[in-house]
Amino acid sequence: MDSAQPRQAETAGLSKGLKNRHMNLIAIGGVIGAGLFVGSGVVIGNTGPAAIISFSIGGLITLLLMRMLAEMAVARPVVGSFYVYARQALGQRAGFATGWMYWYFFVIVVAVEAIAGGRIIQLWVPGIPLWILSLGLMVLLSATNLVSARSFGEFEYWFSSIKVVAIVVFLFIGVLWITGLWPGSTPGLGNLVDHGGFTPLGWGAVLAAVVPCVAFYTGAEIVTIAAAESADPERSVRRAMRSIVARVVTFYVGSIFVVVSIQRWDAESVGISPYAAVLDVMGIPAVSVIMNGIVLTAVLSCLNSALYTTSRMLFALTRNGDAPKFFTKLSNNGVPRRAILLGTTVGYVSVIAVYLWGDVVFTFLVNSYGAVALFVYLVIALSQVVLRKRLEREDPASLKLKMWLFPWLSYATIALMLAVIAAMALLPSTQSQFLMSGLTLVVILVGYEIRKRYGRRPDSEATEPLAADAATGPAAVEPLQSAEAAGPAQDGEPAPPAGTAGDDPGTVPQDTVMIRH
Predict the structure, then answer these.
(1) Residue stretches of the chain with pLDDT short of 70
(2) What's the CA gap between 260 and 270, in Å, rounded?
(3) What's the start-to-end Cα distance of the chain, in Å?
(4) pLDDT tens column, 237-277
(5) E strand or H helix at 447, and its extent?
(6) What is the pTM for the complete model shown?
(7) Whose CA is closest to 222, among 171, 160, 269, 138?
């Protein structure tokens, strides 16, 4: 393949409202939520000080996966990101399942984060019912997403900035305490070993805790979905994925280190809110108010990101006939409003169901998506191996950001993901989540068979062929994209030759953006 061949950068009419500063913080916004500020306390309680190791292993797995995804996203920035890569690498069934699993995951995140945010606000206004507060949060953030991609990016920028500042300040004052520079501090690292040792519950508990730790890191991949709405997708993804994931891992591991160093791991307060437990030891006033404000910001950030992600993934699914064409409609600002409203509506229904039937529904929601993100991550890793080999053969010049030590480190990452999923299936504490998530996957696969038999074939322009670079002349459909450009064939059927789907093969669709490399 000619190395001068242009890369695909589907926009499909989506706006270009996201700036580099938005992109740099979107990955952080998707990852740092209530899981760090509250949920990490559960991991500490189940492992002891060695939770540092659990979060480090989970962070390493996430770092490797995001590097694999970044390689594909830089080579082929496209609406739908890993959903499209799964279609190209593993077939239409895998793509369909990946897209809908990811959509379902973040739809449930919308509901869970809205309920969590409502519970925090209810601490300040106890007279207002939880369902009204939760719905109010969804209305507010749905409105910001409906306006424009830039509106989403601006809110996410400030939400994420507040979280980053809070964590950096926490790490700074924690180091002051540990080194004895904080007034009245008890310096040293004795709490790491003084209460049953570094691994009081054994190494088995440490390894088991890697499962929820990997789940805590879920969300860094959102930046590759947002890339299609940035002015410079290649540069944005490259910069974000090189630095943001490492920062997130530092925030998680550093925070856990500070917590278990300052407060004993088995203190009841650590299990409730590890950050608040440390601030209380330091004698900082109004601890509960401070932490509730920070956790609320984190929840709103995740809710904002989840609404954005569900809409863009659903929009991408429509491009290949994997979702109703009804959701393809864009506003004048290039926003898929119908797709946003569907995700919001499902969130509304979930919140009302929790209000009517309580923890039974909430437990079902949490269990039904617990392992879904891990399934998606496994598909990302498998897709990278297939597409990397194909790109090396057909378009090596596109590989400007590469996975380290390919293929061996990619194989190792796949093995690690399989180990995490197997652990989730075998551990009593996570087995119900694995089984319910497996049921979710089965339902989606049944949906694919129904779509395959009765669904529409996408229009010929549902996924544009590669755009031509202005300097290289008309576009030629690359083998990597031929099935997409010509309209998807059913599994087991060959795709029609490029250029036979009703388009002039020498014509570039008007809404395809030219990207120079």
Answers:
(1) 1-13, 27, 29-30, 242-245, 455-517
(2) 9
(3) 15
(4) 777 776 666 777 788 899 999 999 999 999 998 988 899 99
(5) helix 428-454
(6) 0.83
(7) 160
